[in-house]
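Lab notebook, bench 4. The sequencing result for the construct came back, and we need a structural model before the next group meeting so we can plan mutations. Quick request posted to the team channel:

Model the 3D structure of this chain.
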Amino acid sequence: MLRDWYKLYYTYITNGTDSTEGSYTRGDGDNYEVFASVPDTVDKVRVVLQDYAGNLSEAVTIDNRPAVILTSETTMVNTGDTLQLSAEVKRSEKGNAVKWSVSDNTSTDTTIDENGLLTVGDNETAFLLRITATSLEAPDVSGTMYIMVADAYNLTPQYVSVNYGGTQKFSIEKPSGKQAPADAFIWSIESVSGDITSVNTKISEDGLFTAGIDETSREIKVMATDKKSQFVHSTIIYLRSNNSIPNAVSSIEQFADIQTDSETFSVEKSLVKNKAEAPVPAPAPTNNDPAVPDEVVWTVEGANSADTKVDENGTLTIGIDETAVQLYVTATSVVDETKSDTAVVNVTPKEKHYVEVIAGEHGTVTPGSGEYYEGTDVTFTFVPEEGYAVDKVTVDGKEVSLTDGKYTLTVTGTTQIEASFKVSPDAPDTGDYMPVMVLLLFAVSAVLLASGCYLFVCRRRK
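Done. Here's the predicted structure in token form:
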């Protein structure tokens, strides 16, 4: 194969069917390192290299690695419920039997049996369960998927602000409000940076936190350790003085859980308390205590996506490719940088799903096979060769209609798109009469030959 390659062309082969050809260009952004991870569902990859002079290498077909593919009807389950999972060992001649295991669970009642039936304990507190299926005949081949526990116990509330000298009651409860016994946990606190400086900063055995009026630490970590499983629930308390920024960010509440998306989320409208509901009389300003303007600077930290940002009005935009599970949004006073407040967004990253595109002869489909985030709208364009037309397009085996040669798919899971092409009824007449002329010449030659033989016989008789 070529050493000094410029472009790499690849085709996924699944169940004997080729996908649309894709390519990587050397030195083109993120593609400099060449190949991305090949999905486990793909059986083989055909690769052709092109050098800088345009020369092409011979095609090389490479078998994909053996893998175990896990599937289930859903990736979410409630505590106390069961979920059936299935596993298939692909590209291995050593059998389809697997050994099931579950990890990251906090409850001993959370188990999975030899048939892949997952049982989630009613007292499960883990948010995600890691399910693994390992080939019995090839222990180095395994597959993993994550199951979300929809109503797991959690430390509540999460990420709150407390005034120095104030208190906050914590509990372990489900989203439904059902609480676990407080005495089933060991409650403790520690300073996020430095030490706790006040003897009055403490947490009781039933989860009541008190911030000392003379405390100097600004962030306190609260922990509740399950006495049975030793699993630790935790959250952060942001301590503030009673004269934090008025009417701006001092009353930011905990963010609601949201999914990654390109839509915006208004911090001010949704997360700042309405002062009219609980009016607090403000002291009259004096020369020693001037009024503080409401102008603040908004910032967001912890983001992994360049599209995640907060604007000057407090509108937070979560990038669709955001992978962080928590974001920290801070508003800081313009006139006094020591006055600020922070709130937290709990983000549920969107899953990626593989869309396989299969194009028949005499046409192309763009874009080709690839992975897309759940909920993404992807528009595929079907282009037949000259003299041909689109015959049929199916999505997971069901025929769909095109609009101006295009079809838009909303990605909800693994999908297969297949297109076939046919000779166009409007194709122009090429004028190719060669087969007819050959038959005609053959017939005339036969007649002439027969006539010649007849004349020759007659002359001999005379």
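Confidence is low (pLDDT under 50) at residues 243-259, 262-293, 453-460.
Will bring this to the meeting.
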